[in-house]
Amino acid sequence: MFIGHFAPAFAAGAISPESPRLGTLFVAAQLVDWAFFLFVLVGIEEMRIVPGITAMNPLDLHYMPYTHSLAGTAVFALVFGVIVWRMSRNAVAGVWAGLVTLSHWLTDLLVHRPDLTLAGGPDRFGLGLWDRPLIAIPLELAMTLLAFVWYIRATKGPVGPPLVLIGAMLLLQTISWFAPEPTVMSVWLPITALVAFAILTMLATWVGRTRWHKRQTGLAVASARG
């Protein structure tokens, strides 16, 4: 799951005028993957390349108890939610940030092979849709595009920035799906992922600064959010 993780971010931005701005929601949506790839770089968590381990990618995510256990994700969600609440002085914004962060584990559950845990224990979970590309690809596209349209319809602002964002998302997802797969593990794999996250987060921040919820009026439009 890549751009599908951002569907809850778009949805949160569409549902509530008190949700954080889109850039913050994009950070929330991929927060545990930011942490995971950083942890891989410093040796706290581990991944390796095993060609054919799933039909859609060769990633063996064999040790990630801190970021991709449900308990670990919940801790990230709680901490990030509190940070957003304190910085925005808006408890509702903090709740939305936490919920979007927590959604990461649930959306991963759809596509991962059984490599997710509840609290880092031996029991592993994952519905394995990465082995069903004819289901996984349309599902991820539908999740993302429907949530994006919902966000656009619920907000006001120029159409150009969100079109650039969704175009970049689709381009990066296409590369992820169809570019030649890596055959050996190197530091460039997590670095490339972090660069992709950074690009999309910067674009989402731009979009969030140019749009406001249709239920916001007057001074509420200019109020500080996360």
Quick take:
The chain has 226 residues and is mainly alpha-helical.
Walk me through this protein's architecture.
- With 226 residues, this protein is mainly α.
- The protein has one domain (3-222).
- It is built from eight helices and four strands; from the N terminus they run ααββαααβααβα.
- The chain has helices spanning 7-15, 22-42, 70-88, 91-111, 133-154, 160-178, 188-210, 219-222; strands at residues 46-49, 59-63, 155-156, 212-213.
- A two-stranded antiparallel sheet has the order 1-2. A two-stranded antiparallel ribbon has the order 3-4.
- α3 (70-88) packs antiparallel against α4 (91-111).
- It comes from Qipengyuania pelagi.
- The chain crosses the membrane at residues 25-44, 64-85, 92-112, 132-152, 159-179, 185-207.
- Keywords: Membrane, Transmembrane, Transmembrane helix.
Give a count of the beta strands, DSSP E runs of length 2 or more: 4
Structural class: mainly alpha
Mean model confidence by pLDDT:
95
User: How many helices does DSSP assign?
Assistant: 8
Largest sheet: 2 strands, antiparallel
Number of domains: 1
User: Low-confidence parts lasting 5 or more residues at pLDDT below 50?
Assistant: 221-225
Shape: globular
Transmembrane segments: 25-44, 64-85, 92-112, 132-152, 159-179, 185-207
Keywords: Membrane, Transmembrane, Transmembrane helix
Protein name: Metal-dependent hydrolase
Organism: Qipengyuania pelagi
